Amino acid sequence: MAQQETDQQHAGVLPVDDEGYVIDTRDCEERETAYRERGTSRPITVVGNPVLHKECRDVTEFDDELRKLVDDMFASQRTAEGVGLAANQIGVDLKVFVYDCPDDEGARHVGVVCNPKLVELPADRRILDDSNEGCLSVPTAYAPLARPDHAEVTGQDEYGNPIKVRGTGYFARCLQHETDHLYGYLYIDRLSKRERRNALKQMEENEPRYPVVPND
């Protein structure tokens, strides 16, 4: 009984470094492909859909249904050519996101975070980066948005094991962006009113390159 529980706990779990952060840069192609090939791609919900504008429910059941959702999220992310995807972006009200994202040094990161919480960084580590940001739920729109260029997230993996994830540059932006989603915030909610209107205008004037769920 105890041995079976231990085996299950370690199945598919990422290793950690000396500081306890997941090592999510190994075997990225194999792991992403395995997730994606088990999954089914779903259309993306877009701004205006109620599920995107409220805090999602905590994940409490780390079961086969959750892991099927994770597989579908990786498949959907690949179809949409994204680097991160939150569950509510495919209409599911649960705090889980997946990512397949490079950092500014070109290292690829692939992983899953349930019930994420951003770690508050000290002032001396909050160097802002005002690069452009986009979102699969605001298709074809981009706008500059200042975010810290280093991010740390705590949470759980899809098996319920506690994890810590950290990233810099573009990957740090991804971690912050996806965590925001699960608490009901889109990146355009952090823009000025003028910039938000401009982003929505970009969205209206262009066609998404992937299937989306039309709002009623």
TrEMBL record:
The reply on keyword GTP-binding is no
Q: Which CDD domains match?
A: Pep_deformylase
- Top EC class for this record: hydrolase
Q: Which UniProt keywords apply?
A: Hydrolase, Iron, Metal-binding, Protein biosynthesis
Extract the InterPro entries matched here.
Peptide_deformylase, Peptide_deformylase_sf
Q: Which reaction does it catalyse?
A: N-terminal N-formyl-L-methionyl-[peptide] + H2O = N-terminal L-methionyl-[peptide] + formate
An example of a Pfam family matching this protein is Pep_deformylase
Q: Which residues form the active site?
A: 178
* EC id: 3.5.1.88
Domain of life here? Bacteria
As cofactor, the record names: Fe(2+)
A GO MF label: peptide deformylase activity
Q: How is the cofactor bound?
A: Binds 1 Fe(2+) ion.
Q: Where does Fe cation bind?
A: 135, 177, 181
Would the keyword Flavoprotein be found if you checked this record's keyword annotation?
no
Assigned protein family:
Belongs to the polypeptide deformylase family.
Q: What does this protein do?
A: Removes the formyl group from the N-terminal Met of newly synthesized proteins. Requires at least a dipeptide for an efficient rate of reaction. N-terminal L-methionine is a prerequisite for activity but the enzyme has broad specificity at other positions.
Q: Return the protein name.
A: Peptide deformylase
